[in-house]
Amino acid sequence: MRNAMVREPTHPGIFLKEDYMVPLGLSQAKVAKLLHVNKRTIHELCTQKRGVSAVMALNLEKLYGLEAQFWLSAQNSYNIWLARQKYEDVLKIDIEEFKRICKQDKKDI
């Protein structure tokens, strides 16, 4: 399963900035106003310092028409990639040990 996702997925804040804000000529301040959040929230989202919450995804859906699920899926992919980078060496499961435990549990029933 190692390296299942080699390339870093695009953070949803990058999608927001590059695919929506820049082409539409919208500043972070303007988007913040439209979404009823503070400018810092949008700045942190666009600079990958903040993730997309379910509420933000719903607001982005209303503003841009792109389903909330898209924003959350992009965030989830990014989160999984980050966790894999940070914890890959720690998250080791011995599959043979797992099989032995499962067989033992069946015998104990």
Explain the overall architecture:
The protein has helices at residues 12-24, 28-35, 39-46, 54-64, 68-87, 95-108. It is built from six helices and no strands. Helix content is 68%, strand content 0%. The relative contact order is 0.13. The protein is mostly helical and 109 residues long. Helix 1 packs across helix 3 (39-46), helix 2 (28-35) crosses helix 3 and helix 4 packs across helix 5 (68-87). The protein has a single domain (12-108), classed as lambda repressor-like DNA-binding domains (434 Repressor (Amino-terminal Domain)).
Strand content: under 5%
Mean pLDDT, to the nearest integer, reads: 91
Count the DSSP helices: 6
Biggest sheet: strands, sense, closure? none
Count of structural domains: 1
Query: In terms of structural class, how would the helical and strand content be classed?
Result: mainly alpha
Please tell me the CATH architecture by its name.
Orthogonal Bundle
- The amount of helix comes to 55-70%
Which ranges are low-confidence, i.e. pLDDT below 50, for 5 or more consecutive residues? Answer: none
Number of strands: 0
List the helices and strands and how they pair.
Blueprint: H1 12-24, H2 28-35, H3 39-46, H4 54-64, H5 68-87, H6 95-108
Helix pairs in contact: 1-3, 2-3, 4-5
